[in-house]
Amino acid sequence: MIESTSNTQEAVTEAETSVTTQRHSLTNLTGNVDLSCSIVLSIFASTNELAINLDVLTEPGHPCYMAPEPPEIACYRPGKLVFPNLRRVISRETRLNVYPPDSNTGTADMGELQSVKPEDGEYILCADFGVLRIRSDEPYLDVS
Prior knowledge:
Strand order of the largest sheet: 1-9-4-3-2
Strand content: over 45%
Number of helices: 1
Largest sheet: 5 strands, antiparallel
Structural class: mainly beta
Number of strands: 9
Helix content: under 10%
Shape: globular
Radius of gyration: 17 Å
């Protein structure tokens, strides 16, 4: 909240440097995002949604893409995969492993997300940690 006129310039500068979040429908996911190489950072479930925080692999042409600086070889951006209006989650073959924090970023990861596919009114999420059968409204991916 801006409390004085001296903070107006700070607010303008903050708005100019902020990254816009791009929302993607999983049914119309463009080639500029590769979910199969994205890293799972955390999973949160509530009574109405399942949210998976990711480092999303973006490619040239995506609005959030930035050329990687060595030693990086790809552009990963913060993302969240959301399954809204959650009705059911069934876990199969789950092996929740949390790998040690990355020396460059300091964040732990739970492995890679491999795929999310619709099947019989549910979404099948396959990842290094296992398989989830999710019944929800259509999921979406926010990338910033």
